[in-house]
Amino acid sequence: MKVLVATEKPFAKKAVDGIRSIVEQAGMTLSLLENYTSTEQLLEAVADADALIVRSDKVTRQVIQAAKRLKIVVRAGAGYDNLDLEACSEKNIVAMNTPGQNSNAVAELAIGMMIYMARKQFQPGTGTELRGKALGVHAYGNVGRLVAGLAKGFGMEVYAYDPFIPASVIQAEGVHVASSVEDLYSRSDYLSLHIPANDQTKGSIGKALLSLMPKGACLVNTARKEVINEPELEAIMAERKDLKYATDVAPDNMEALRAQFDTRVYATNKKMGAQTEEANVNAGLAAARQIVAFIQNGDRTFQLNK
């Protein structure tokens, strides 16, 4: 039984060592494809793999078709838009993610970006503090919940909107429940965005919502760039000279935004949400354990393509 770890951006050595230990203790063999530079390399490596672990690597229909023995693929991380779930289902391949393993890393980054924007990207001049400001959390899942907890520690007033989580659950954690998504944006000096990218959410964050935000407000996106309506973002920032945007994934029009708005916009050079040693290890080990549990016991707890 061969487990392939295919990572264009490799795991830390500690993570790889842990994955190897879990896999080999289960009587399986581990194969590594790290720092690969072409799809052809991935297609060749996956041909005889029974299980596959990836990070942000794209598991396309072409990859699935090349994987003649593949039974399970696990995305080491929460987002899974890099997996072709339909193609997996057609070949009876179980697709999983590892929810929660990267959450703290992403939450800390979101707070860090708020501080960075509040202090004018550490440029000369007078900044502001987070204390006393209102934070809106759009989607109260693993990351959103952690962001809310950290923000309360900074003395922020926290609001959340998530139609899939009972209000009583959110309120029990000392967080106010916004009555609607419009209500959330209208209250938020900082808005931390955690919605997934799907047919309902892509392009959904645009002028209608951003125009509701208070003077000097800042949108912080550690989710996916696809949820932002980028032309409308540019338009509202041109209209509202006070709005700011910080993102962990650069929009397609980032050069235009930076040229017009200078320190009112910021994007990390590369998606950094899960880029901590701890998250790297946690997600990798979780992926290995899920593969072993599935192969040995048929455990499908984190299956995505049900």
Our measurement of the CA-to-CA distance between the termini, rounded to an integer number of angstroms, reads 24 Å
The shape is: elongated
* CATH homologous superfamily grouping of the largest domain: NAD(P)-binding Rossmann-like Domain
Q: Summarize the main sheet.
A: 7 strands, parallel
**Can you tell me the CATH topology of the largest domain?**
Rossmann fold
What is the count of structural domains? 2
Number of helices: 12
Give the CATH level 1 class of the largest domain.
Alpha Beta
**Can you name the CATH architecture of the largest domain?**
3-Layer(aba) Sandwich
Helix content bin: 25-40%
Instruction: Give unreliable regions as ranges.
Output: none
| Elements, N to C (H/E) | EHEHEHEHEHEHEHEHEHEHEHEH
What class do helices, strands and sheet pairing give?
alpha/beta
Query: Radius of gyration, rounded?
Result: 21 Å
Proportion of residues in extended strands: 15-25%
Mean pLDDT: 96
Strands ordered across the widest β-sheet: 8-7-6-9-10-11-12
Number of strands: 12
